[in-house]
Design brief:
Blueprint lengths: L24 H15 L18 E3 L9 E3 L9 E5 L15 H6 L8 H12 L4 E4 H4 L5 H7 L1 H6 L3 E4 L3 E5 L1
Parallel strand pairs: 3-4
Antiparallel strand pairs: 1-2, 1-4, 3-6, 5-6
């Protein structure tokens, strides 16, 4: 006789998996668990070489209890993990960094001024306990060709290690 025969394990799902509701604490627990596999001893080949560095500019999202949101120029000693949002601009131009507002955005970015896709990316980044987020329209100075030459390289690199899909692509560097 098999112990527990006929009584399925409470966490065992048969058939198609039922994922937690989007945005729920259970969903973020699951995402954190998946990410911990990349940090653990199991070799998933999802962790890049240790010499990964942050892009030229990132968004510092603080932590889950933080109101901090600002552009950040990476410093020696910064955590090099970050999440990238790749999004379709469409006809509505999202909030973007320009030469004229760069210093203001380094002081603060108002969460409520961000499009919903960006707010969702900030929330997910905070929930999975990653400090930095890269969004092209904010992390590359849009009216500066030299900054585009430096910052545009991240677009290609991000697709090497993609993490989360939900109509948009979030990539995490771990």
């Amino acid at each position: 006789m098999i112990i527990g025969a006929g009584i399925p394990h409470p966490l065992l799902q048969l058939g198609f998996p039922k994922l937690p509701e989007a945005g729920s604490s259970a969903q973020f627990d699951l995402l954190r668990e998946w990410l911990s596999g990349c940090d653990g001893t199991i070799s998933h080949r999802c962790k890049p070489e240790s010499n990964v560095k942050l892009p030229t500019r990132v968004i510092d999202v603080g932590d889950i209890n933080s109101n901090l949101l600002r552009l950040h120029d990476p410093q020696p000693g910064d955590d090099t993990r970050y999440i990238t949002l790749s999004h379709r601009w469409g006809s509505d131009i999202p909030l973007q960094t320009l030469k004229g507002n760069l210093n203001t955005l380094k002081e603060t970015i108002n969460f409520n001024d961000l499009p919903k896709t960006f707010r969702d990316a900030v929330t997910i980044t905070r929930e999975v306990k990653v400090r930095f987020l890269w969004i092209d329209s904010l992390c590359i100075i849009q009216d500066d060709e030299e900054d585009w030459a430096k910052g545009g390289d991240v677009n290609g690199e991000c697709f090497q290690l993609c993490l989360l899909y939900n109509c948009r692509l979030l990539c995490a560097w771990y």
